[in-house]
Write a structure and sequence with these properties.
By secondary structure, the protein is an all-alpha fold. It is about 65% helix and about 0% strand. It is globular, with a radius of gyration of 14 Å.
Length: about 110
């Protein structure tokens, strides 16, 4: 958990460190989301954070979204995340917005 004087301060601090900030939530909402992730057994938060950093790096390097997803899918060891990413890739390939494709999985934080 990260603390700051405002959400904007924390957001800016992480953005300067190269993190892709996808939203802030109140403490109770964060605990609730962690509980849902743990209870679902489908995706560990640490696994998502690693994916998130790798995805950000590839996008900042100028790779197209589908290419970045393909590369990460090929290297993914977590079977749960692999299935989710394959579904996201197919949805994006079909013309769906990336944020909508992730939201459709009902596992990822709001993007």
């Amino acid at each position: 958990m990260e603390h700051g004087y405002s959400e904007a301060e924390v957001h800016d601090r992480f953005a300067q460190q190269g993190y892709l900030c996808i939203g802030q939530a109140a403490d109770a909402a964060k605990r609730s989301r962690r509980a849902v992730w743990a209870a679902s057994g489908r995706l560990r938060q640490s696994t998502f954070l690693i994916f998130n950093q790798q995805f950000l790096t590839l996008i900042k390097a100028g790779l197209p979204i589908l290419t970045a997803l393909d590369l990460l899918i090929k290297r993914q060891r977590d079977k749960s995340l692999l299935r989710l990413l394959e579904n996201v890739r197919e949805r994006v390939k079909g013309g769906e917005l990336l944020s909508d494709a992730f939201a459709a999985q009902q596992v990822f934080p709001k993007m």
